[in-house]
C-alpha cells in the first residue's frame, strides 16, 4: 500500500514553479527612512542590503513624521523619503507640513496600517508616490522604491541572466550560447550575449562572428559608454540576438576592478530586454559582483564530486547574498561519459537541496560539430533532444513560454526554399 501511494504521488504532473516578479534595480539615489516601529526599521535596513538597492544610499531614523519635518527644516531633502505613520489625521496634517520644507522632485513613500481607498486618494492628491500597508517585509520596501524609477510608459529594464560553470570545462559557455539562441528564436525576445572571458572567450567562434570591436572597447573606455557606443560594439547574429564579443587575444592583461563592468551592464539594461552574461570560471571581485547583481543565475555542473562541492558553495554564497531573490538554478551537463564514474542526479539534488533544471547527456559528436562549424545545436540538428532542454532552461530563466508558431501549410517547404535562396 505504501509503495502504491508513493508511485501514485510520483506520477502526478509536475507543477511549474511560479514566475518570479521582476523588479528593476534602483539608480544611484539617496533614500531616508523615518520609522515608528523597530520592525519596520529592520525591514527597511534589510531592504537596503538587497542587490537592487545596491547603488542607493540609505539612511534610517526613528521618530516618524515629526522627525522628518524637524530634519528638513535646515537640510535638503533626499531623492526618496520613506515615512511610517499610523494615524490618519496626523498623517495628512504632517504631509501638509512636510510639503512646506520638502524640495521639489522628492518622492515620498508612506508606510501605514489603514487600508482605506479614500485615504489613498488623499495621499495621491498630496503628491505621495506610493502607500504600502504595514507590516512590511524587505521585498515590499525594495519593490516600492525601485518602482518609483520604472515609469509604466518607459521601456522595461532588461533582465540580466548570468551563466557560470561550477568547474572549468563543463560547457557553461556552450550552454549559455544555446540558451540565448532559444531565448531569441523560440521566445522571440531581443537578447544580447556578453562574453566576459576577454582572453579566451568562445562566443565569437560559436556564433561564427569576428567583429572588430567588442566588450573590451567598452570596459577600457568607461567614460565613452552610452547607448550609442554600445550599439556600435554589438554584432548582430540573428534578428533577435546580438553579441558583445570578447577579443580573445593575449596582447594585454585583463585585470579589472570590482565595478569595471557596471557601466556596460547598466547601458545594456536600458536597451535590451534580456542580457545573457557568459561568466568565465574564475573568482574575483567583478565576477562575484556580476553573479550577485544578476536577476537570474544558472550554474552549469558536471556530475562529479568537485562540481558538486563547487555548486554547493555557489548556492550557499548566492542565497546568503540574495535573500530576497529566488535561489540560483543549475543544470547537469556532459552526463553519461563512457566508463566515467558519476554522481547520480538524485544524489546531486539531495546535496544541493534543489533539482536540476535539466540533465544534458554527453554527446561529443553533435556538440563538437556545432563548435567547429560555428553553429548552434538547433542549426546542426533541428530535432535534437537537447534543443528542448535549452528551451526549458530559457523558459525558467525568463519566466516566458514559447511563442506560438504559425501553422504550416502545404506551401511551407517551397516558401522555406525560396527564402534560403
From TrEMBL:
**One example GO MF annotation:** ATP hydrolysis activity
Its GO CC terms are: cytoplasmic side of plasma membrane; cytosol
Region Disordered, residue ranges: 1-21
Positions of transmembrane segments: none
- Domain AAA: from-to ranges: 159-319
- Keywords from the named record: ATP-binding, Nucleotide-binding
The GO biological-process annotations, alphabetized, read as:
negative regulation of cell division
Name of protein: CtpF protein
The organism named in the record is Bradyrhizobium guangzhouense
Amino acid at each position: 500500500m505504501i509503495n502504491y501511494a508513493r508511485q501514485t504521488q510520483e506520477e502526478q504532473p509536475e507543477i511549474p514553479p511560479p514566475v518570479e516578479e521582476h523588479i528593476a534595480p534602483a539608480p544611484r539615489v539617496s533614500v531616508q527612512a523615518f520609522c515608528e516601529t523597530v520592525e519596520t526599521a529592520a525591514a527597511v535596513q534589510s531592504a537596503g542590503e538587497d542587490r537592487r538597492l545596491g547603488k542607493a544610499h540609505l539612511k534610517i531614523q526613528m521618530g516618524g513624521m515629526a522627525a522628518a519635518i524637524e530634519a528638513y527644516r535646515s537640510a535638503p531633502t533626499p531623492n526618496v523619503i520613506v515615512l511610517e505613520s499610523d494615524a490618519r489625521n496626523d498623517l495628512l496634517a504632517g504631509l501638509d507640513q512636510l510639503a512646506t520644507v520638502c524640495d521639489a522632485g522628492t518622492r515620498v513613500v508612506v508606510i501605514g496600517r489603514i487600508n482605506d481607498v479614500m485615504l489613498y486618494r488623499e495621499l495621491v492628491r498630496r503628491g505621495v508616490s506610493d502607500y504600502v500597508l504595514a507590516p512590511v517585509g524587505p521585498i515590499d520596501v525594495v519593490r516600492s522604491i525601485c518602482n518609483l524609477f520604472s515609469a509604466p510608459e518607459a521601456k522595461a529594464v532588461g533582465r540580466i541572466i548570468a551563466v557560470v560553470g561550477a568547474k572549468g570545462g563543463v560547457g557553461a559557455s556552450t550552454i549559455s550560447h544555446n540558451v540565448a539562441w532559444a531565448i531569441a528564436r523560440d521566445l522571440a525576445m531581443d537578447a544580447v550575449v556578453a562574453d566576459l572571458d576577454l582572453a579566451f572567450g568562445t562566443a565569437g567562434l560559436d556564433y561564427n562572428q569576428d567583429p572588430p570591436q567588442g566588450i573590451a572597447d567598452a570596459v577600457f573606455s568607461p567614460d565613452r559608454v552610452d547607448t550609442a557606443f554600445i550599439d556600435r560594439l554589438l554584432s548582430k547574429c540573428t534578428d533577435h540576438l546580438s553579441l558583445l564579443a570578447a577579443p580573445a587575444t593575449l596582447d594585454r592583461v585583463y585585470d579589472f576592478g570590482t565595478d569595471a563592468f557596471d557601466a556596460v551592464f547598466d547601458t545594456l539594461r536600458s536597451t535590451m530586454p534580456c542580457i545573457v552574461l557568459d561568466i568565465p570560471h574564475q573568482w574575483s571581485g567583478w565576477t562575484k559582483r556580476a553573479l550577485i547583481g544578476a536577476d537570474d543565475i544558472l550554474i552549469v555542473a558536471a556530475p562529479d564530486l568537485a562540481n558538486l562541492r563547487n555548486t554547493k558553495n555557489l548556492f550557499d554564497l548566492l542565497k546568503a547574498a540574495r535573500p530576497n531573490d529566488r535561489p540560483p538554478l543549475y543544470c547537469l551537463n556532459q552526463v553519461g561519459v563512457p566508463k566515467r564514474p558519476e554522481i547520480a542526479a538524485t544524489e546531486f539534488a539531495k546535496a544541493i537541496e534543489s533539482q536540476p533544471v535539466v540533465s544534458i547527456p554527453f554527446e561529443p559528436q553533435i556538440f563538437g560539430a556545432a563548435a567547429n562549424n560555428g553553429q548552434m545545436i538547433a542549426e546542426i540538428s533541428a530535432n535534437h533532444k537537447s534543443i528542448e532542454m535549452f528551451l526549458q532552461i530559457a523558459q525558467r530563466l525568463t519566466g516566458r513560454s514559447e511563442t506560438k508558431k504559425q501553422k504550416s501549410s502545404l506551401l511551407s517547404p517551397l516558401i522555406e526554399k525560396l527564402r534560403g535562396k
